[in-house]
Write a structure and sequence with these properties.
alpha+beta; SMI1/KNR4-like; two-stranded antiparallel sheet; globular
Length: about 140
């Protein structure tokens, strides 16, 4: 996988601050991804979200910490999700071109599986995409017409 438009270098303490804000522990594979890339645009970028309208979809951008573009920042997207989907426990990690979110679901203080959150639905319906972040990355593929 190629990541373009990577974010500024961060350190483990930056991730620890995010975990404190979130109230959850992030998976090691996602922590490593943030330390290496801190967000960016992946190639390939297509992924299936079984059951979701418009699937397959793309991963337009992975969010990061202290990104220059506000809408690519993890904390900004966490606030967006909290406002749009009250009581929903997840960390938005990426978006598709339609503005819907890929999130790490939070259960018992641990960020677990990757889900697709349909922000166009008034009930904030979510769909299982992958049981882990590393499996989500492995599912990214080129678009097939």
């Amino acid at each position: 996988m190629l990541i373009e438009n990577v974010g500024p270098k961060i350190e483990a303490r930056d991730i620890a601050a995010l975990e404190a804000e979130l109230g959850a522990v992030l998976p090691d594979s996602y922590r490593e991804f943030l330390l290496l890339y801190n967000g960016g645009a992946p190639t390939p970028d297509t992924v299936d979200a079984p059951g979701a309208p418009g699937t397959p979809t793309d991963v337009q951008v992975f969010f990061g910490i202290a990104r220059a573009v506000e809408s690519s920042d993890l904390s900004w997207n966490l606030s967006l999700l909290s406002e749009r989907c009250v009581g929903f426990r997840a960390l938005p990690i990426a978006c598709d071109s339609g503005g819907n979110l890929f999130c790490l679901k939070i259960e018992r203080g641990v960020a677990t599986e990757v889900i697709y959150c349909d922000l166009d639905d008034p009930d904030c319906v979510s769909y299982a995409v992958a049981p882990s972040f590393e499996e989500f990355i492995a599912k990214l593929r080129p678009f097939e017409q």
